[in-house]
UniProtKB/TrEMBL annotation:
Species name: Chromobacterium indicum
Pfam families, alphabetized: AzlD
Name of this chain's protein: AzlD domain-containing protein
Keywords: Membrane, Transmembrane, Transmembrane helix
InterPro entries, per the entry: Brnchd-chn_aa_trnsp_AzlD
Top-rank lineage group of the source organism: Bacteria
Keyword match Membrane: yes
Transmembrane spans: 6-28, 40-60
Length: 107
């Protein structure tokens, strides 16, 4: 890609992003989702986060590593356990980063 193609792509992404975000501001008052969709949208953040974290935790170097030497996997499992037990997201993040950092330092 040359310079003008980069700028065309950037401006196109900007226009699409603005159109999507502005549509919720303009049509937000009149936009009503069915009840089942409202209930399903509640789980979208967790699903997106899982889709982003799972590949990194399972295969940080490009190959699947399920050993306890994989600090990403151990930190993720600890975060899931803490969040499941307490339901506190910030606590889960802090504890999992502490475990991850400790394992990276020790190994």
């Amino acid at each position: 890609m040359n310079g003008w193609q980069h700028w065309t792509a950037i401006i196109g992404m900007l226009a699409a992003t603005l159109a999507i975000r502005a549509s919720f501001l303009v049509f937000g008052q009149r936009l009503a989702f069915p009840g089942w969709l409202n209930r399903a949208l509640h789980y979208v953040p967790a699903a997106v986060l899982s889709a982003l974290v799972a590949p990194m935790a399972l295969a940080p170097a490009g190959t699947i590593d399920l050993s306890w030497h994989n600090a990403y996997l151990v930190g993720t499992v600890v975060a899931i356990a803490v969040a499941w037990k307490n339901g506190k997201t910030l606590l889960a993040i802090v504890v999992s980063f502490a475990v991850y950092g400790s394992l990276r330092w020790l190994l």
